[in-house]
Amino acid sequence: MESRLRSVGVVLAGGVGRRVGLDTPKQLIKIAGRTILEHTLALFNGSPEIDEIVVLMAPGFTGTVREIVEKGGFDKVSQIVEGGASRTESTWRALKALGPQECNVLLHDAVRPLLEPRIITECVRALRTYSAVEVAIPSSDTILVAAPGPGGDIIHDIPDRSWLRRAQTPQCFRLSLIREAYERAFADPDFDQRPATDDCGVLLRYLPDVPIYIVPGSERNMKITHPVDVYIADKLLHLAGAGAPRPNARDYREALDGRTMVVFDGGADLVELATGHGARVHSFSRAQNGVRVEDYDSVVKALAQVGRIDFVVSAAGAPHVGRIAEVTHETIAETVAVDYLGPVNVARAAYPHLRESAGHLLFRTRGRADHSLNSSTNAAVADLTRTLAEEWADDGIRVNCVTPEREPVLGEEPGRAVAQASLDVLISDLTGQVMDVGV
Asked: Distance (Å, rounded) from C-alpha 349 to C-alpha 88?
């Protein structure tokens, strides 16, 4: 029986984000709590079909990638290679770095962090039959072929859209095949004047008899090229985190049994759920034991009583409801102190404990209609979540936020759904996420 070929994911991160408006590689921009490169590496490192990863990085930044790989635990990364002056040169450097042994090569743009694991699986499976595979999606737009006219471009042709596809990555090949195509390209004196735009283009031009199989891609598998793409990708990654599958009972037990959780101000349902999975839970509030989150020293003293801490939940919320024109100055001051200063104090006081345990901080905000103060403090806590996730990433601390929606979830008591969602986030690897949950 033929042995399975090694499958290598080559992450092409050699570009610099000039179209994004940066002088540093755009793959090092942080979105949803991690750099774009980290999101992409996590996809390939977590794929059972991928045996090894090679990273091609822009000159001068290979040391940064090495730090990312070490801190992120991306154990499948075997080489970090400095990229070339062009996409073609970077790809060729990667192909040379892979050595003489035959393997499957999946060439993927680092700035496509929303690649679905399904696509990696289907590409590797397709390589059992074909020696070249492309990922593509149908074009939903009409494509025009332009030609020069008297005062500018004019329409020359409108191709049949049913046969048009938009190319994505990964582009996948037998190593020996794509090497041969590039060797023929470099031997062509006209190649520099008429370079191919991607690797399948090189193969199609210099080995035209080799069929290239198309694996269906995804609209989500977007390439981050322009400033607006950064914003869209960030939102899509947050949605992807919110839609993650719920853990099973064994996952809860493994993550919580024997661990210590501290909950500030409320969360009886969360306390019950976490305790049921073996966690030691300490609860603090003004009514219960005189701990006020708006008082930093009070929070510090509460945490000092506990010892090692793995999870901290800040669920404080001022009880006042009303339109801003109708509330008193005292109400405004208390709302801001509890709803915003409280989470800040909890974060500051919890930091040394969570740094020691590489733990998890979770903010829980309150969803209230017709309360502009509450809405504005919720927005501030959401921003705090994202910035702290970046600020504390090197310390191994995850920071997330759960925000209840106003409508209850059918069949669940108010608060239970929020508690369940909070627990799911706490035992996950997510960070920098702000999630809306029905209550």
From this structure: 51
